[in-house]
Amino acid sequence: MKPSSDIGKFVIILHGADEHGQPQQVFLQSYDPDGNNGQGKFSVTTKLEHAMKFVDSQAAINCWRMQSTVEPLRKDGKPNRPLSAVTVQVTPITAL
User: Fold this and answer.
1) Residue 4 confidence (pLDDT) above 80
2) Which residue of 24, 33, 34, 76 lies most exposed, with the fewest beta carbons within 10 A?
3) Is residue 4 one of the residues assigned to a domain?
4) Which of 42, 7, 10, 39 is nearest to 28 (CA)?
């Protein structure tokens, strides 16, 4: 998924840790569920202006739930939604 225009009102924040184990929050910049042979590929940014923006929270959730078309099912038979392996928060831009 490519970034939308700047008219979006919501962003996806990814929660994790940096290489030193310190908590880190970054914005989703791009996402391709078919990247890396269906394992998913995404990039992040610390800058709000470079983040993917969504018109509403449902659009952001739909992005997070996107299923790979290259490898639609995981080995356990469940849908392969690569970004769902990451802890995320859908946040209105006005709350930042």
Assistant:
1) no
2) 76
3) no
4) 42
